[in-house]
Amino acid sequence: MAERKVNTTSTQVAKLAGVSQSAVSRAFTPGASIAESTRRKVFHAARKLGYQPNAIARSLSTKRSKIIGIVIANVTTNPFYPEVLDALSRRFQQRGQRVMLFVVTRDQNLDDILPQFLEYRVDGILLTAATLSSAMAHECARLGVPITLFNRSVPDAHASSFCCDNIEGGRMAARLLMESGHHQVAFVAGSNDTSTSLERERGFREELKKHGLEPCIDMGEFSYQGAFDAARRLMKLPKSPDAVFCANDIMAIGVLDALRHAEQKKVPEEVSVIGFDDIPMAAWPSYNLTTIRQPIERMIDSAVNDLLDRINQNTIAPKQELVRGDLVVRSSAKLPSGLSSGYVISTSETRNV
Amino acid sequence: MAERKVNTTSTQVAKLAGVSQSAVSRAFTPGASIAESTRRKVFHAARKLGYQPNAIARSLSTKRSKIIGIVIANVTTNPFYPEVLDALSRRFQQRGQRVMLFVVTRDQNLDDILPQFLEYRVDGILLTAATLSSAMAHECARLGVPITLFNRSVPDAHASSFCCDNIEGGRMAARLLMESGHHQVAFVAGSNDTSTSLERERGFREELKKHGLEPCIDMGEFSYQGAFDAARRLMKLPKSPDAVFCANDIMAIGVLDALRHAEQKKVPEEVSVIGFDDIPMAAWPSYNLTTIRQPIERMIDSAVNDLLDRINQNTIAPKQELVRGDLVVRSSAKLPSGLSSGYVISTSETRNV
DNA sequence: CTGAAAGCGCTTACAG
DNA sequence: CTGAAAGCGCTTACAG
Q1: In chain A, which residues have their Cβ closer than 8 Å to the Cβ of B262?
Q2: Are the CB atoms for B225 and B199 separated by under 8 Å?
Q3: Which CATH architecture has domain A67-164+296-323?
Q4: What long-range pairs does B133-140 form, CB within 8 A, spacing at least 24?
Q5: What residues does CATH 1.10.260.40 cover in chain A?
Q6: Integer distance in angstroms from CA A38 to C1' C1?
Q7: Residue-wise pLDDT tens digits, B260-280
Q8: Is A51 on the interface with B (CB under 8 A)?
Q9: Which of A90, B3, B66, B141 shows a CA-CA span of 20 to 30 A to B251?
Q10: CATH 3.40.50.2300: does it fit domain A166-294+326-352?
Q11: Are B224 and A280 inside 8 Å of each other by CB?
Q12: Cβ contact (<8 Å) for A86 and B76?
């Protein structure tokens, strides 16, 4: 193992500046009581020696690492998550926090991952597209490390959670399809152990029931290819659907491609397709997807604020927040009369539950 | 500021186990000399107290953080980078390293970012889709922190770099277009300060020159929308191109959409389109993009190995490695006779330069 | 405002 | 194999 070159320390800077080591520390601590003149001396010496405070040592001493642990899944399969990761890490960066990242697969157990964060004494943990065992939730609570879930509902009162109102989103999709006169509808689920897919299905089902309909369900594994295959199966059914609602956009796109390129169906004339998320691709002319938009920026702002607040004040209770999505009407689904493409039905509001 | 709850320390475990604090430390250090029986005693006590070693303290003491700093740009605009990030972080995780992530915009100056890594005494730095000032390269060299660039050629001998052979890739694209008889070709560049775009253009140009052709150039800003707009401009030219080579796939897809949906052009009958990267979307039936595949996995393996090796042995010199891409023949470009779609022309090999 | 000193929680020569 | 002790590089009460 190679020796790491030795960095300049505060003691060396102190010597050169002719002050105490504490003075050097104070010079680099915003708000510390130190004379402007000594601060200048310190900075001058520091600059000369190429000194930079050691954040590891600071963390040990302050018991604050200024590191947030982020767990994310599906980064390569669903363009929604790169958006989330990008927004999240920017926010944390702006707020002076570092990000320690773990990329996981959907089935990976977090019970092996979170301890790696705890080892580094992260100040807080943000999980996205990942679920938390209640054992781990308790462990983090015991250690005083706040956890926030993004886009997953909470299994446990020890964590905060920020989600789109998936049930209402499912209802919105169903209402649109009913208003434009569909009779045979299908739902392409993501997976049956994920709150997003389950809740979207539930809202969809509930609203259809009011019209005496029941969707047929197939599974798209939250991926383009999974949904592509699901669409082909659906079209082989004796009563093939005239509308398909998908648990997310990337699956809706898979369905669209299958319908057009493998099944020779016209969208939306023969089959309507609705997605969920409003990823950038949904607006591309090849897809023009009607979808439920998740207000990412707003959700992320809330999630980041909540986590940072709970880090700074451990008396704040975790909160569960639901944000309404917006129906974005494009041209992959037949329109009810009176509605035109390009229209966004904005019902966005935030609720606490 | 809230008090962070106190974690169990090795001293407390030592007391409960009836051994010295050093023994506790040794119990958790693989390879340390300790009797199996005392290790068991320690583990038992540790389990009882919910003890987990403090990696921050360990880092301070060993002068190794086991953290790799990763900088990445374009995560939301180019699906290639989520792939890279996913592969990179998995590799590092497997090798027992943590990842500290910075997401930047393409124009953001790294000179403000890297010091934040150095503050935390990261063991090494990996930059992707980002360039390094030679001042920072020197600073890292001075501190003994190895840097590796991924997908950017190196500005400085202090860093390693792992790239696809972009020049050869550009040549391959040109050869295919020449063999299938195109006469008026265009190149949609990414940006003029990025080695990938510049090199792909250069290879493309060189090969065309042999046939007495010169491409007309437009700028796509490395984005779908930028390339979409560029395609529209190109088609308005007096001599509009019958083939477009793009500096990456996401731009090729933008061009494809513009040609079909805004310009009513048939691809490849009227215009051929070639991309670079082979992102998953390139294989979707809506696009079926002919492209130069970057062998990500292989490039990442080399990059990660190189960085880890240089961390462990600071006598190893940085290296510059070039990996050949493969031409993936699909149906967005006219085929020379004798070649059929679905064919991959694999010339992959690795070279040191 | 300033310095000396204790302490954060580990690792690791050193002596046994 | 084991323990006592020094040391990693900071922060921060404490006394002045």
Answers
A1: 285
A2: no
A3: 3-Layer(aba) Sandwich (3.40)
A4: B133/B109, B135/B111, B136/B110, B136/B111, B139/A50, B139/B114, B140/B114
A5: 10-53
A6: 10
A7: 999 999 999 999 999 999 999
A8: no
A9: A90
A10: yes
A11: yes
A12: yes
Give the mean pLDDT of A205-217.
96
Distance A80 CA to C9 C1' (A): 40
Q: A261 near B285, Cβ under 8 Å?
A: yes
Strand D contact at CB of residue B300, distance < 7 A: no
Q: Which nucleotides of D are covered by protein (CB under 7 A)?
A: 1-5, 7-13
What is the per-residue pLDDT across A45-84, written as a single tens digit (0 to 9) for each?
Answer: 999 999 999 999 999 999 999 999 999 999 999 999 999 9
**CATH superfamily of this structure's domain A10-53:** lambda repressor-like DNA-binding domains (1.10.260.40)
Q: What does each C-alpha distance from A72 to A78, B186, B209 come to in angstroms? A: 11, 39, 47
* Residue showing tokens 């390009």: A342
For A170-184, A216-230, B126-140, B305-319, which range has the lowest pLDDT when averaged over its residues? B126-140
Where do the CATH 3.40.50.2300 domains begin and end in chain A?
67-164+296-323, 166-294+326-352
Nucleic acid strand C: bases within 7 A of protein CB: 1-5, 7-13
In whole angstroms, C1 C1' to A323 CA is 51
